[in-house]
From TrEMBL:
It comes from Streptomonospora mangrovi. The chain crosses the membrane at residues 36-64, 76-95, 101-121, 133-155, 175-202, 214-235. Keywords: Acyltransferase, Cell membrane, Membrane, Transferase, Transmembrane, Transmembrane helix. This is Nitrilase. GO terms for cellular component: plasma membrane. Gene3D superfamilies: Carbon-nitrogen hydrolase.
Amino acid sequence: MPTPPSDTLGRPAGTAGTGAAAPPPPERPSRTRRHLWLAAGTALSLFAVHANWDIPLAAWLYAIPLLRFTRTGGPVAGAAWMLGVAALGLAFWFWQADVFSPPMLLLAAALALIEAAPFVLDRLAAPRLARRGALAATLVFPAATVAAEFLTATLSPLGTIYGVLGGTQHGSLPLIQIASVTGVYGVSFLVAWFAAVAAHVWETGFGAPRTRRLVVAYTAVLALVLTFGGARLAFAPPSSPTVRIAAVTLAQESWDTKVGAAFTEFDSLEAIVGADRARVREVFAPIHSELLRATEREARAGARLVVWSESAAHTREEDKGALLEQVAAVAREHGVYVQIGVSVYIQEEPHMRNETVLVTPEGETAWTYEKAHPIPVLEPYDAGPGDTPVADTPFGRLATAICYDVDFPQTLRQAGAQGAGIVLLPSNEWEGLRELHAERAVFRSVEGGYSLVRAVNRGQSTTVDHQGRVIAATDYFDTAEQVMVAEVPTGHVPTVYSRVGDLFSWLCLAGLLGLLVMAARARAPRHGG
């Protein structure tokens, strides 16, 4: 008697054994449907890059259709498409930030590879890991996102100014309190993990028990983070004494006339250091006089500390002492601390140092700090050593950094590690960074447990407390003469991040490597169609 044909489980063909028939493999979605997912994700991604037109919700949603797109197609084609999406987002950000230039395009090409990597790694590893469990499969994308952000901030000259998903959530105070433990990257992880979980639910449906368990697990983690944040806001608000601080910048008209005239006459750094010394002093004297008058006015109004913006003053190195003596005279007369931002022009190349100098009420110099992170391409001068100075005052411990330094968490973390209660951040920006840079700076306050005072020429001056609340803000472009005055909390609040640094990011990087090893050892799933 012939043996009937059997299926791969040894059952006779056409029977289902004691259970139901095995479900057929899922159909591949149509090309049209996949391209609609790609278009939707790409459009949302443009509002999730933390530029001036950000939509915080877009950061939670944009990756969902893109993950669905990459997981339902070939890895090579998916990688190519994600590279294009990343490049478009970078170009859109550069355009909004007004830094679109050929050198920046070269930088964008390298960054696009990093930005696309989380989607590519998810496509390669998540389907294999899904055979072991839904949780492991969904962790690839958030771990890769944090790894990409962290490596970019640590190894590239861009820091966190671009591509940090968590930065889009600067206005959600309960959520961003987790940055006091993990840094901003913890917020990025939660946002990216949401997309991975949602994409998994979309792919498998909500009926599978392990999918429901996954959703419960993510919801529990998010609820725990929000509970921690809410409790921190409710039970640990700023409670230390405050100090009145004034941030002064040149009036718009003065910038256009006095500064404009100076750099029309001296059209290069070489021209400044090669010109007649007396003429250089004469050209920059009206700028210094205006800043000193504003300092005296704010001191008489009760300010205990006056901060000038980045590069507000200009002096040849041999005349720096005379400028500081003028500042010291005001500080002594009014019993006020004065921090000046000054461009110091030197004979040796690259002919400039970007400094801040803190002058005490006794007329002494408490610190001189050089900018540690000049902006790539735009600021071709040497970087300072990056050692954050601190000074003890009657109203607490102060620290400082300059402008773009704030985009490097490892630099600003020094202030928190040294117990600073207030960090002074003079800046000199442009309209393309009008809101972006102020919003990014919020995370440094939460991470370090200090108040942050940003004195910004051609941008938004802001004061933020240690929990990310904006205490005061003024906009250079909306005021004839920008002066920001704030009562600033002076106390330092210890944070986990100040002590352990980027431990969370290193754990994400190690976890990603572990997940990739697990995926490499797993069998690839078979696709239908």
